[in-house]
Amino acid sequence: MARMLEVKDLSVSYGAIDALQDVNLSVDKGSIVAILGANGAGKSTLLRTISGVVKPRRGSIMLDGSTELRGMYPHKIAGMGVIQSPEGRLILQGLTTEENLLVGSYGLKSVNGQSKASRVQDNLDKVFSLFPILKERRKQQANTLSGGEQQMLAIGRALMASPSVLLLDEPSLGLAPLIIRDIFLIIQRLKEAGNTILIVEQNAFQTLKIADYAYVLELGRVSMEGPAEELIHNDALVEAYLGGKKA
Amino acid sequence: MSIQDILQTIINSLPMIGRYALVTMGIVLIFRTTATTNFAQGLIATFGAFVVTWAALQWTALSIWICLILGMIAGFVLGLLVDVGLIRRARNITPAGKQMITMGVMMILVNLIPKIFSKITLNNQPGKGISTNILEFSLFDIPLNITENGLWAFALAVVLLAAVFAALKYTKWGLGVRATAANETVAQMMGINTRLINAFSWGLAGALGVVGAFFTGIGTVLNVNLMSNAQVFAFLACVLGGFSSFPAPILGAVIIPLVYSFAGNPKLMGPQAGIWQNLTTFVVVLILILIFPNGLLGKKIIKKV
Amino acid sequence: MRNTVQQATLPKRRSIFRHPFTSFILLGVFLIALQVIAIATDGLWPKTSVINGFATVIIYAIVGFGFSFLLGYAGLASLGTAGFVGLGAYFVAYFLKEGMPGIPYLLVMVLALAVSLLMGLAVGFISLRIEGIFLAIVTLGISEVFYQLFNSWMPVTGGPNGARINVYPIFQRTLGMSSGDSKRAFYMLLVVIMVALMMLTYNMGKSKTGRAMLAMKNSSSAAQAMGISLLKYRLLAFLLSTAYAVFAGVLFMSYNRSTLPTNYTIMLSLNILAAVLIGGSRSLLGTFVGSFIVFGMTPILFQNINFLNENAWLINVIIGAIIILIVMFYPGGLVQLLVSVKQSLSKKKVPAAIADEFASSAEHEITQSAPKMAEISQMRAEMAKNLSALLSKSKADSSSGHGQAPKDSLPDDVILRLNNLSMQFGGLRAVSELSFDVKRGEIFGLIGPNGAGKTTVFNCITQFYKSTGGEILYRHRSGQVLSLNHFQVHEIISKGIVRTFQNVEVIGELSILENLLVAAHHQYRCNLLQEAFNTPKVKEEEQRLRERALQVLEYCGLTPLKDVPPVGQPYGVLKRVELARTLMVGANLIILDEPAAGLNDQETLELTQLIHDIQRDFDVTIFLVEHDMGLVMNLCDHICAISFGKKLAYGTPSEIQQDKAVQEAYLGMNDVAEGEGV
């Protein structure tokens, strides 16, 4: 199976703190890979490094077996189709819902005879059909949307770029359980539509239900990995989250 | 003061509003995209104004508008250079540090400009520069007047600023600028080349400032301190209007010239009005800022610990 | 490398001269010698212009010293300096001019200083309403107001033509010396004043005041938690810098006897900024050198170089370029440059002992170091006896009266009670009706998934946020019950409550020992004047608190690092520094915000031991907020679990571990049991 994203020996430090140490992971095309772990485990750092916002000390990030992402400017990485929906959603203030979406498609180019404008429109239609509430609120200032709607907007914004790899950073953060359920359903649909997704989450069980493969990060290292169906029955996972093995 | 006096005082402030709005727009563009308060804005603008004059004297056949465009290009390039050549290259720069670099640029320019362009004054020949004739008109049967160059200043400023705001709202570039201003990191992650956007903002700010400086210099001797008042007032306009959006500081750029105009009116302020004009304006503006510490249109943000 | 201890030294003048006062005095001697030689050679060398040049350098250096309080210590931006210098100058011009009654010079100076204090207060208050960049712009506006005043108010200031006085104060006016002699004498006076000010400024910078300002600059949150009132110290910074500026203006006018308004424009403010920056914003000698470069090179060095004489503009361009280069590459100014040159020349090596102790701790297996830790714990129990006694002398002061609640609102064994605590941010309910008790002397844990509101609860208790509903009751050591919402952030520590921060807030510009001294800030009794003169009382107080800090450092195993700044130390060390800070004041309740965040297994273990030892050895209650389940389950006597700002469960660690609601909140809904499958 094609490896869409391959991370090798990735190490990241913030000054004296080692945020990530020798992380190895891979994401197959068309699959959902989950990164789980408690807060401070380094999950967000991982995504930020892939997106080029944080520079790693060591390691490589290979896209589609051919392009080394490490060292590229963030906007160039986005141009390669690696798009993130960031932790905390980070909706752009001062812009409307629709404008936020259009920012997502900023880097789109015309392809195979289809003009850029037409691609943008296509993607916009797709996003609106996926998230009808966003269409309803398209002219509203984005920061007036509810938490759940903003999360949809963040994901929609990422989808506007026709991503080859979708990075989702804690999409369930701060959302009510029912909304989380909806969001996860949509993520599953996205996978079924052929998207490659790397999702970072604290919410282990729900994520494992829709993922194909998962890695567990603890203090910057991969402590566990395996097919999602196996991990979901693994007692060690519960312990890792709620203590027990330590000391 | 009669209605005529009031209206005339307001009309008198229009040219200044136009000029200050341009300089203020430049400062806002730079501040919101790169978080830098540009202390060299006035001097970059002055540099451009000198280029305009030099071009007009050098190539007398050239229309003054072409010369203005040349000056705008000079201001654009200088602004760009400050960003790309200096600020971008600094190690571990803090916002305060960026501020101080612009102060250093200010010191260099204030000494360098008179040397490069020794002995230039903006000559005013009919059919050459912009005329300083006084135009008379009436509004609601009240006779009023405005200088021709003053009218040009205001009108051109309105046109330019309208164009900039339209571009901000409707063009892809504008979207990129607003996204960068909202959150530079997220903008980068969405594929926006923020370095390019920032550099262009510096350039555009320079160009806009040049127009303001040009009109300030008409009918006077061009000197290096041309825009020193404008620099301070533009900053105050930003604080007064509030930094929370792009149009807010323009409100400040409207209010300050109005205050200035009324402060200089002998019928309102007495025979010594002209001498105290600057002082009065500063005091009033500072008081307003104290009353509205977040700006007239600004909102207070609760800081999260 | 994470565990390499970096022995970066602070730019201490101690490494160049033995005691800074020596260098100040030497400088003074040099400057006076110049004048003496000039008298001896009857003005041949150094020329009068050179002496005048040095006088200018001295005067602006004085402005710079005051400015460095603002910039270097408090980290505040102000561009109003020029206006205040002018204020001092015009004060003298007005009161000493021809035709004015003979007001004593000293009185004029006192008046000027009084006005400067008022102005400083005004600007200080303004600084509370307006932050950072906006403050700089407003101070710029204020300076412009002064300039306009000087320029326009002809009857008082002489307007654009400037002002003159005819006689030199003191020497000519009072003592009747000749004009020339007076000028020379005044120059000597300038030197003496400058050296004296350098010493006083140095003392103030090294005292608790200087440390408090640095704390404020490096981390306003930590500063407040340690009892430093931001209002007070900002005002103080502005007061001092304004006073110095006005004083310098007085001296300027007294020496030069004439001035123009154009001297007091933004260019002067920028030049002062440049001078301070060039030297290094906290270095007094550096400021003098900076002042020399900016103000003195032209009159002193370049007088005879005709090319530069005619091209004065070139010098200013060069100064501007120097500012830019320094900000770009050496933000610490000349001092930083000197230090880095020194370090590369001497190639200092990290003392092996320290490196070993800290580097190897990460590689030890857990089982291997268990006996070592038990040893340390034992040593601590011993140390604690002494330390406890020291600390009991410094127990938090009893409450004055306000904020008290009825004594019986808390049972005897409860030290902290949250009663329906709620916190709302606009439309967001971060905490909802949260209630729990913390028992005296226990270790209590607050847990919850990311975004549950733990830090918000924390901040509400310590008054960084004012809760929008409910109350927080606390039993003070004296037995009084206090309602914490009645107090401000910086008052909390004096009630016996100390806290640490999730994102380690240490003061980077102070050594680790000094970081601890800041923690005891509110227990210092001496005032600024005493600090300026370094009275015996100040020395005694400082000594006493240093002793205490050394003992605390020993207890926490940080002694080898006491003189090193915290910057660049491993995270485990920084967490220990924060913990050490909490021990400095004999607190009643210690609140720890995610103490184990970012630590590896070994470090977490050591930290757990330390927290355990602290509870055992000192009469404290420990409240911690944590994610690391291992730490919490091992340490805590009771735990409260929250989610979405609401209480989920309360109980002992094992009860919590088995609680279904808690498991769900952490792992998400486990629908697998229902047979849904993947």
What topology, given as strand order, has the largest sheet of chain A? Answer: 6-7-8-3-9-10
The CATH homologous superfamily of the domain at 3-93 and 164-242 in chain A corresponds to: P-loop containing nucleotide triphosphate hydrolases
End-to-end separation of chain A:
40 Å
Q: End-to-end distance of chain C, in Å?
A: 42 Å
Shape of chain A: globular
Mean pLDDT of chain A: 86
Percentage of residues in DSSP E strands of chain C: 5-15%
Interface with most residues: B-C, 45 and 46 residues
- Helicity range of chain A: 25-40%
Low-confidence spans of chain A: none
Describe the structure.
The complex is a heterotrimer of chains A (247), B (305) and C (678). Chain A has 247 residues and is α/β, with parallel strands linked by helices. Chain A has a domain at 3-93 and 164-242: P-loop containing nucleotide triphosphate hydrolases (Rossmann fold, 3-Layer(aba) Sandwich). Chain A is built from ten helices and ten strands. Chain A has helices spanning 43-50, 74-79, 97-104, 116-130, 132-136, 147-159, 177-192, 204-210, 228-231, 235-242, and strands at residues 3-14, 17-28, 32-36, 58-63, 67-68, 82-85, 165-169, 196-201, 213-218, 221-227. In chain A, strands 6-7-8-3-9-10 form a six-stranded mixed β-sheet, with helices on both faces. In chain A, helix 3 packs parallel to helix 6 (147-159). The mean pLDDT of chain A is 86. Chain B has one domain (13-226). Chain B has helices at residues 3-34, 41-58, 64-86, 95-116, 148-170, 172-182, 184-189, 194-217, 228-241, 248-263, 266-269, 273-291; strands at 134-139, 142-147. Chain B has a two-stranded antiparallel ribbon with strand order 1-2. In chain B, helix 2 (41-58) runs antiparallel to helix 3 (64-86), helix 9 (228-241) crosses helix 10 and helix 9 (228-241) runs parallel beside helix 12. Mean pLDDT of chain B is 86; it is low at 122-127 and 301-305. Chain C is an alpha/beta fold. Chain C has two domains: 21-310, no CATH class; 404-674, P-loop containing nucleotide triphosphate hydrolases (Rossmann fold), CATH 3.40.50.300. In chain C, the strands form three sheets. Chain C has a six-stranded mixed β-sheet with strand order 9-10-11-6-12-13, with helices on both faces. Chain C has a five-stranded antiparallel β-sheet with strand order 3-8-7-4-5, covered by helices on one side. In chain C, a hairpin with a 2-residue loop joins strand 12 (638-643) and strand 13 (646-651). In chain C, 51% of the residues are buried. Residues 1-16, 349-368 and 671-678 of chain C have low confidence and may be disordered.
